[in-house]
Specification:
Largest interface: A-B, 30 and 22 residues
Number of domains of chain A: 1
Number of helices of chain B: 2
Structural class of chain A: alpha/beta
Helix content of chain A: 25-40%
Number of helices of chain A: 5
CATH architecture of chain A: 3-Layer(aba) Sandwich
Strand order of the largest sheet of chain A: 5-4-3-6-7
Oligomer: heterodimer
Shape of chain A: globular
CATH superfamily of chain A: Glutaredoxin
Strand content of chain B: under 5%
Structural class of chain B: mainly alpha
Helix content of chain B: 40-55%
Distance between the termini of chain A: 63 Å
Largest sheet of chain A: 5 strands, mixed
Number of strands of chain A: 7
CATH class of chain A: Alpha Beta
Chain lengths: 166, 71
């Protein structure tokens, strides 16, 4: 009897989600853009570019720190095969647009109101970013955002760029 | 007595099975200031400001992660 309850307790708290691991193929998605006059965003297995993919939300405090740094990142790699994509998980577009209005966005922004794409990537917290290599595989994952994190991200992108050139 | 023990265990199991982890992308409501455990958010902010200034450090006041799962 006791064993039954122990198993029941374990099953009740079991988390079946498997984190998206480094080296795994990034899930494909097609999401509506949040910026005016831009097409829906898609990512497929054979992108041919290095993608910095960031999951964010208007209610996420650290996203206020990450956005200006992402703008700088896009500016730095604007002549390289590097794509910066931010995916909002906000349920309401207005909230995401209000947040975007506070920044001079120079990268692509999409919205995942259903959370399906965030679930496919098994996002552990807000914000979480992924570096996806030119073959569509996850190179690294960064949970949260602190000052100085972008230095490491920049180095990883540069490493991938060098690897692609050789 | 045995009956009481079984009843408590059953009730606990049923209650625990009702627990659900909120996905990080669904924590918008939990991230609102009014959803924090504190009853005095302004007082807490003031205390934190004074504490961090006195300690000349930041990040060591409490554990990481709020309702939004932010670090």
């Amino acid at each position: 009897m006791r064993r039954f309850f122990l198993v029941a307790l374990l099953l009740a708290n079991a988390n079946y989600a498997r984190p998206l691991g480094v080296g795994e193929t990034a899930p494909e998605f097609e999401l509506p853009s949040l910026l005016p006059d831009t097409k829906d965003l898609t990512i497929s297995k054979t992108t041919g570019v290095i993608t910095y993919l960031d999951f964010w939300a208007s209610w996420c405090g650290p996203c206020n720190i990450s956005f200006p740094e992402m703008i700088e990142l896009k500016e730095e790699f604007k002549n390289q095969p590097v794509e910066v994509i931010a995916i909002s998980v906000d349920k309401k577009r207005e909230l995401a647009r209000r947040f975007l209005g506070r920044h001079r966005i120079n990268f692509k922004v999409a919205i995942d109101a259903t959370g399906n794409t965030a679930e496919a990537f098994d996002v552990p917290g807000m914000p979480t970013s992924f570096i996806i290599d030119s073959k569509g595989k996850v190179y690294s994952e960064h949970e949260g955002f602190r000052k100085g994190d972008m230095k490491k991200i920049r180095e990883q992108i540069k490493t991938l760029l060098i690897a692609d050139q050789t | 007595m045995n009956y009481l023990k079984q009843l408590i265990l059953s009730s606990t199991t049923i209650l625990v099975m009702g627990c659900e982890t909120v996905a990080p992308w669904d924590r918008d409501v939990l991230a609102r200031p009014e959803m924090q455990l504190s009853t005095d958010p302004m007082g807490d902010a003031l205390f934190e400001q004074v504490y961090l200034s006195k300690e000349a450090s930041s990040g060591g006041y409490k554990t990481a992660g709020g309702g939004c799962g932010c670090n």
